[in-house]
Each structure stands twice: as C-alpha cells, then as structure tokens.
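Lecture notes, unit on binding sites. The following record was shown on slide 14. It pairs a sequence with glutathione.
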Amino acid sequence: MKLYMVPLAPNPTKVMLYIAERAEMGTEMDIEQIVVNTVKGRHREPEHLARNPFGTVPVLELDDGTYLVESLAIIEYLEDRFPFSALLGEDAELRGRARDVERIIDLRIAGPMGSYGHAKNSPLGRPPDPELAQRMKDSVQVPLDYLESLLADGRPLLLGERVSIADCTLQASLQFLRYVEADLFGDRPLLRAWDERYRARPAAQKVLRW
Ligand SMILES: N[C@@H](CCC(=O)N[C@@H](CS)C(=O)NCC(=O)O)C(=O)O
C-alpha cells in the first residue's frame, strides 16, 4: 500500500501517527509513504487528482490500486485489515468512546485550530485575520474544557491507559499550531501535561517534526 501525505498537515499526520503507534505495538503494515508537496500545489495536479478528485491528502492506495481519501476511513480500514492490538479497543464501549472523542476533536477542535493558525501566522501566506482568529479561539473553548475534564481522573491518555485515535487526531492538529507558533490550550494544565506525555512516545518522536 502507499500513503500519499505531507508531513506538517494535520489529516495526513493523524494517519502517520496511527501507523507509527501500530508499528510500536508490533503491527508492520508495509505502507510506503509518498510526499505530495502541497506548498508547491502538487495536490492540485492531474497526477494527484486522479487519485483523489477532491485534491486533498492523505490518500491511501490499496493493493488493488483503488484509493481511500478520508483520513478516518483510512484508519478504520487499517483497523479492520490489521485487527491484532488495534487502537480502537476490543469491545463496543471502548470503540464507541474512542470514536466519540476522536469525532469531537476532529469536528469541533481540529478545523478551528487550523483556521486559527492560518489567521495568526499562515504558512501559506494568507493575510492575518484577527477577527477570524478570535472567533476560532472562542469556538474551541467548550471542547477543550471537555478534554480537560476527561483527563481529571488522572488518565495518562485521552481514553485511558491505552493510546487511541483521539490522541493521534489531537496531536496532529497541535503540531500545526506549534509550527505557526500559536497556542490555544490556555490555562489547562492537564491537557498541557498530556501533550508532553504524548510527544515523548516513540511513535510521536518518529512522526512529529515540530
Ligand atoms: N476530510 C478529509 C480532509 C483532508 C484535508 O482537508 N487535507 C488537507 C491537509 S490537512 C489538504 O489536503 N488540504 C489541501 C487543500 O484542501 O487544498 C480527511 O479527513 O482526510
């Protein structure tokens, strides 16, 4: 299989973290990672549009030459294909909770964090937009409080002792914020401690560059 990706972007990074976490647990998936340079606009060129008409990354090319173009669908496909020691957890409750927290992060935090980063200090050269930045900052307060409250029982990771797709999705967005030298955690010591703990993991050390 081949994963078309670009290192800094959150959606590819969450899949890369997932693959690295599985490798640390002993599941080698044999996925070649190929950079599509989005800064140079390669994702909008015919070669990439033939893989994914929406022109986004990540894209997973399966062994039969077909493609998956949604990051969560890619992760769930890999969970199904390599079920031993998978990240979602063994029973329905664990899997439900992992998906729930991952969706909250992706739908309520990741998007606004990306927009906030671009509004503050866009690596794509977009002009600063203080009004948008403030709106995005406001919109992540309740979901960040929710994550802080999850960690209040002393769990080391977002779902407990075991790493989950929620950790991968949140950390992928945080890397982008670090790159643009922005921070949205505010006064949330448990999330800050989680961030340090997660970044010390071998999988994170292998994938994260910022
Ligand atoms: N829903 C898609 C979103 C993919 C996406 O928007 N990827 C971004 C990088 S994080 C991208 O390719 N942006 C380039 C563009 O939209 O032009 C997923 O979860 O994979």
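Take-home: The domain at 2-81 is CATH 3.40.30.10 (Glutaredoxin).
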